[in-house]
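Hi C.,

You asked whether I'd gotten around to modeling the 186-residue construct. I have! Everything is below, sequence then structure, no commentary in between.
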Amino acid sequence: MEIKEVTDSAAWDRYVLQTPESKYTHLFNWSRVIEETYGHRPVYLAAVRPVQTGNPGICGILPLFRFKTLVNGLRLVSVPFFDTAGILARDPSIRNFLFKKGLEPLCGKNAGLSAITLRQEGMLDIPDLTPMVGGPRIFSGKVGLSLPVSGSQQEMMGKFKSKLRSQIKKKREKRAGLENRKNRAA
């Protein structure tokens, strides 16, 4: 297995669409959108099996951007402006390989990085989160919450504790009051 920087959107997106844990933010076109909009250069890495294995192709991905700020300097960020889009691989050993071997050349002493931000949905199961001696600190503290939506509104509300239901109800009443005031003013 080897690490390659990917520029082929078709192969990348095929892997993303075939991996159940993927998010829309893993799709390749975000590299173009973020680079053209904000000027952050993408570095899209993939763990690739060689043709000789009989099962060639991408087996894990790590979308990164060189993200420069005035305060923190240069960082590597796994898809800035989104909550989740870190390492995507079905096999934990491939996640580990991508982390260690993919970040190593990008984080050398002359890279000038202040940090690496990996935006993972869950905890990384990588035993040693230090990609190399003297490397930048790793930050994976971005947290996102999700709740599967199913059933009617009443069924969903019934799943919440009474205190949360009360808070939601108060917010709705407050919004309704604002809407009523707007309608009366118009």
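If it helps when you're writing up: The chain has a mean pLDDT of 79.

Thanks,
B.
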